[in-house]
Amino acid sequence: MNFDEILKSEAFDNVKKYSLWILLVLGLAYIIVFIIIQIRGNKKEETKTYSDLCRYLFNKFNSQCDQLDQSAYRVTIFKAKKVNSESPVLVSVGRYTKRFPIVNTKLKFTINEGCVGKCFATQQIVSKQISEFDEENPEQWFSDCEKELSISRKKAKKTHMKACTFCCLPLISLDKRQTWGV
């Protein structure tokens, strides 16, 4: 096939005949790609906003409590998903720490599960202290997770950092007076 055959009038006739369909398909493809780009862009912006808020809270807390070791704690924001359902879950949307790489936990907490879930359910500040994790005898820590935090042993084993001190504050929407996260 050479270039002259492509420019024959029959080729242009087919384009004219199906031009509406071609434009419709191209328009739909453009809209789909645009929506995907917007969703990905908004997700990145939202993650950055939450991470910036965590950094601000970390630095504010550290300036008030300078005797604490900065590398020993972190700030994480959990946001409620499926709020209007029977079983909303709290997922990590932002985190800041000085010691470890900033990676949001993939663990999700239900209402009344963990310090986060109890804080969300009661809309009160919740503070808990459990025993420190001991590699040689982890049973006490796992037992404390079950008794004090209502976290199953299976879920507790999935945590990377075996924390022993928790302090959770409800995050309340100013316009709706409703807790949206912890």
Summarize the entry for a quick read.
With 182 residues, this protein is α+β, with helices and mostly antiparallel strands. It has 6 helices and 7 strands.
Which properties best describe this structure?
182 residues; alpha+beta; three-stranded antiparallel β-sheet; two-stranded antiparallel ribbon; 46% helix; elongated
What does this entry look like structurally?
- This protein has 182 residues and is α+β, with helices and mostly antiparallel strands.
- It contains six helices and seven strands; from the N terminus they run αααβββαβααβββ.
- It has helices spanning 3-6, 9-17, 19-64, 114-122, 139-149, 153-157; strands at 74-81, 89-97, 108-110, 126-129, 165-168, 171-173, 178-181.
- A three-stranded antiparallel sheet has the order 1-2-3.
- It is elongated and about 85 Å long.
- The N and C termini lie far apart (66 Å).
- The mean pLDDT is 77.
Report, as a whole number of angstroms, the end-to-end distance: 66 Å
- Helix content estimate: 40-55%
Question: Going across the major beta sheet, what is the strand order?
Answer: 1-2-3
Number of helices: 6
- Based on DSSP secondary structure assignment, what is the total number of beta strands? 7
Low-confidence residue ranges: none
Mean pLDDT: 77
**General shape:** elongated
Q: Rg, please?
A: 26 Å
Strand content: 15-25%
Query: Element order, helices and strands?
Result: HHHEEEHEHHEEE
Main beta-sheet annotation: 3 strands, antiparallel
Class based on secondary structure composition and strand pairing? alpha+beta
Instruction: Classify the oligomer.
Output: single chain
